[in-house]
Design brief:
Radius of gyration: 25 Å
Structural class: alpha+beta
Largest sheet: 6 strands, antiparallel
Low-confidence stretches: 105-111
Strand content: 25-35%
Order of helices and strands: HEEEEEEHHHEEEEHEEHEH
Distance between the termini: 37 Å
């Protein structure tokens, strides 16, 4: 592609970003440029960012994830820019619109501490209010800060983590192959997936479990109850069907063993996530995140 044409398209992308996001305040922005691999119909970027984009002439796509504020509201916008038929396209997806500050999510570890800090600050301000010092302006400033802290406390209440249920990883090798597939399906259900099916068997074309994440993505899982390592031939078969036949948004290979280096390279190129033995145990006992998070 001529440099002049690339420069013109780059400017057009920047103009589009300004047009889309110019009316608000950008709070955070991340950008990822991916290369499309026609052999595997996948991207060398996080798999969810490449979903639904296949008509790309020069094989490059730029994805911007931007959190921004408009007035009293926050939203998250995804802007996907790519070239097709010598024209520049922008796909814009606007996320849920929430009150300003509501996007903040606190982990289980620091939720209690942050809530206590907000509560302590509020109590300290209330104590100041009760002391009349005749300085009305300072009082109004403190009142505004107190209102802000109350708003943050309400946001914390909405995002408070639910108490984690006690979970224990089973003895995977005490299960039959079919039971292992159902156990993986049960993990998906426990972590919020819907329409979960253990579909393994003759003619499954590599899809042992099919499920949909809480945000609607289709996951196709192949289960390997191995004591050793998964090798490239297994990955090649799965890569050949998971996206083209099953139309997965996310592909997982779950194994009770490990994976060879060549197979790991192939998985990365094909856009397949590997859940090896350690990661599977952490998923099962709740100490680790589900693979789609």
């Amino acid at each position: 592609m001529p440099d002049s044409q690339r420069a013109a398209w780059t400017k057009a992308m920047e103009d589009a970003r300004e047009d889309i996001l110019g009316s608000g305040t950008v709070l955070e922005s991340k950008q990822c440029t991916g290369i499309y691999d026609h052999r595997y119909d996948s991207w060398d970027m996080p798999v969810e960012l490449g979903i639904g984009i296949s008509a790309v002439d020069d094989g490059k796509v730029t994805v911007r994830l931007v959190q921004y504020r408009i007035g009293e509201f926050d939203t998250i916008c995804q802007v996907v820019s790519y070239v097709n038929c010598s024209r520049l396209f922008h796909i814009v997806t606007v996320g849920e619109i929430l009150p300003a500050g509501a996007w903040v999510n606190y982990s289980s570890d620091d939720y209690t501490r942050r809530l206590r800090e907000a509560d302590d600050a509020y109590r300290a301000l209330r104590a100041v209010f009760e002391t009349s010092d005749g300085r009305a302006e300072r009082y109004q400033d403190l009142l505004r800060v107190t209102a802000f802290l109350k708003e943050q406390a309400r946001a914390l209440d909405k995002t408070a983590p639910a108490p984690a249920a006690s979970r224990v990883a089973p003895d995977w090798f005490a299960l039959s192959p079919a039971e292992f597939e159902h156990a993986v399906a049960d993990l998906c259900r426990k972590d919020g997936c819907t329409r979960v099916q253990a579909t393994g068997g003759a003619g499954d074309l590599g899809a042992d479990v099919i499920a949909y994440t809480p945000d609607g993505r289709k996951i196709v899982i192949q289960c390997k109850q191995y004591r050793g390592k998964v090798a490239s031939p297994d990955l090649q078969k799965f890569a050949g069907t998971v996206f083209h036949v099953h139309h997965a948004d996310m592909a997982l290979l779950v194994t009770t063993g490990g994976i060879t280096a060549p197979a790991a390279s192939l998985a990365k190129a094909a856009g397949i996530q590997i859940v090896h033995a350690d990661r599977l145990d952490r998923w099962a006992d709740g100490s680790g995140q589900p693979p789609w998070v």
